[in-house]
Amino acid sequence: MSNTVKVRFLDRTTPPHLVTLILLAGISALAMNMFLPSLPGMTAYFETDYATMQLSVAFYLVGNAVLQLFIGPISDRYGRRPVILFGGGVFIVATLACIYAPTIEIFLALRVVQAIVISGLVLSRAVIRDMVPQAQAASMIGYVTMGMAVAPMLAPAIGGALDSAFGWKASFWVLVAMGVFVQWLVWKDLGETAAVSTTSLREQMREYPELLGSRRFWGYCLTAAFTSGAFFAYLGGAPYVGTNVFGMDPATLGLFFGAPAIGYMVGNFITGRYAVRHGINAMILAGAILAAGGLFAALVLFLLGLGGPLVFFGFMISVGLGNGMVLPNATSGMLSVRPHLAGTASGLGGSIMIGGGAALSVLAGIALETGHGALPLMWIMAGTAALSLAFALYTVRRDRAMTGS
Predict the structure, then answer these.
(1) Cα–Cα distance between 152 and 166 in angstroms, integer?
(2) How far apart are CA 393 and CA 19, in angstroms?
(3) CA–CA separation, 271 vs 62, rounded Å?
(4) pTM, full prediction
(5) In a domain? residue 387
(6) pLDDT of 25-35, one tens digit each?
(7) Rg of the chain (C-alpha set)
(8) What was the pLDDT predicted at 390?
(9) In a domain, 10, yes or no
(10) pLDDT tens track for 176-232
(11) How far apart are CA 393 and CA 89, in angstroms?
């Protein structure tokens, strides 16, 4: 993975292979969006309304946000490997329980527990930062998330096809199987990368103010939060738009739904290829401009009466492109503000980002119930992208002021 780190695949005495990190990050995306084309059918199965069923996305994100507050510090204290293994085991049990949930209330509660799989995504980033410096970390995170992008790109299409053939539970059976495989791979391959800490967990948690007092941390964190916010709003609203506005069946919706992942994979490749050469701030600014520009272009087309499924889903590629360029670089920036708190920074930054995403996901579901087609969702996404660009400009300015460049 790096010319300074020796890695042997399936040897847990060395740091993990790139494949393991990709799959750790990817299973989080699978759990979040594979079943989304099934939301309308699940609404009927649980005899509820769409706004309540859509909470399965929001509750999962809330669980992610809360858990990340603790995952980071715990991993800084006890190591990355045991935390990832514990999270994987709980995820498998919770996913299996989702299949047999008798009521919507129990299903939603299990989605919160299922969110513990986020430990793999959070700590895969911390593992990378344990091993390499800032610019190289951004590049490596870019390559990891580029590989991870295949999961959200294919997952909705697979989920839609599984739903059409076998019903909504099939997606959760696939997640159980994937969880078992990744758990085995982590056990065999993931060696510990965190330095041994003698600091107590309580003392570890007390170090949050050191991060929260850093303007650079907030700049990187809020840029990432609002960039990803547009995507989370899309996750919450696109199934409704595809089904109720455009009249798509689950298989067709699943095929279109993966459009942002195409841009995300390209953005990750650009990060992996050019982050070391041009620096993380240039990549963040370019990504924020691309995401905001694409969304405002789509909004204008809808306001002119030229909107449709190709415009809606097609311009979502720009959202993915912006996320693919902003998130790896902003994450590397967050983790580099205080390198000795890499796990804590990854957890805290991820919690803020995912918590905001959960709120936007709920807002999207509520706004779409007003009956104005796709426009409420378009306004929410465009607004969050504009805020992301504003914080990207602030962060670049702040960094230049500190470095004197």
Answers:
(1) 20
(2) 34
(3) 28
(4) 0.68
(5) yes
(6) 888 778 877 88
(7) 20
(8) 93
(9) no
(10) 999 999 999 989 988 887 776 666 666 666 666 777 777 888 888 889 888 888 888
(11) 41
Residue 98's CATH number: 1.20.1250.20
Tokens 């996901």 found at: 361
Average pLDDT of 33-46?
Answer: 86
For residues 146 and 274, is the Cβ–Cβ distance under 8 A?
no
In-domain check, residue 3:
no
Question: DSSP letters of 138-156?
Answer: HHHHHHHHHHHTHHHHHHH
> 371: pLDDT confidence band, cut at 50, 70 and 90?
low
Burial of 301 (0-12, 13-18, 19+ CB in 10 A): middle
Note down the domain range covering 134. 18-196+207-403
Q: Is 279 helix (H, G, I), strand (E, B) or coil?
A: coil
What is the average pLDDT across 136-147?
67
Give the span between the Cα atoms of 299 and 243, in whole angstroms.
20
CA atoms within 13 Å, Cβ hemisphere of 173: 7
Give the residue carrying structure tokens 């701030």. 281
**Residue reference for tokens 């796990």:** 343
- Specify if 7 maps to a domain: no
To which residue do tokens 């390198």 refer? 339
User: What are 12's two structure tokens?
Assistant: 């847990």
105: amino acid identity, one letter:
E
Q: Number of C-alpha atoms within 13 angstroms, CB side, residue 145?
A: 32
Mean pLDDT of 47-62: 82
Overall number of domains in the chain: 1
